[in-house]
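Before surveying the methods themselves, it helps to consider a single example record, giving the amino acid sequence and backbone structure tokens:
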Amino acid sequence: MRIIKSDIPLDPSCPFHIERRTLRQTDNRPDCFHWHSCFEITLILHGRGIYYVNEQTYEVTDGDIILFNNVEPHGWEVRSDTLELLVMIFQTEFIAAGFAVMDYDYLKPFIERGSNFKNRLDSGRLLTGEIAALMLSVEEEYIGKTTGHLLMIKADVLKILTLLIRHSQDSTKSAALLQEKKLKMTRLASVFDFINGHFTERITLADAAAIAFMSPNYFSAYFYKVTGRHFNEYVNSLRIAMADKLLTETDLNVLEVASRCGFRNMSNFYRIYKKIHGDVPRKELV
């Protein structure tokens, strides 16, 4: 699984956007998560799928809502023919210009993550229905662009965030968590770029640590804290994902695949492949 940053251009004078999107099974990218500098609230209009975030798996269907803050790597898998979404994204500045204390309070559900927080809001809950109705109202204002539409949009977004505060809030955590979490992902952005571009080569933890301007020991702990994976586990997950693709889509034998994916010996390839998948490659079983 690789992690990439998605750059989402928003108007600096109004860093907000809402649109309908259709995902198909051909859009599935199980080997790739992304993160972005925007907060995201997505309403599932129709279809079935799975979202992966914070080492959790959330099955979603009609009426569910999924939430992401501006530092969370996440991915998805479409399970029905299509997954129809209403996606609302906004940057911190849309809500909390200059980090005014009162405005910042609106972002607490995304940042502080109280004990009641989950990235998915189930469709059967009254809270979810209220937020869904507000999102549809925001969409209508965004499309219509009648006089005062930006004021109406912000009012509805603030109401959505207030409802989320009631759903989960933990006042014991520091507001500095926002900057801390964003800094962690930003410090690793160049490392992810390096790994994603060179994982089929011989790369070491020391190489990555140097790019992040950290000592190897500190980088190892830092990388695990941010991603939930050890450095070698992350690199090997990319290699095995590529191996799966080559084994499925090409006529290469297992030895050729292992070599192209960065494995220097077959015993290591088999050990890691079996650790991830629970068995050896299917081509080897034929």
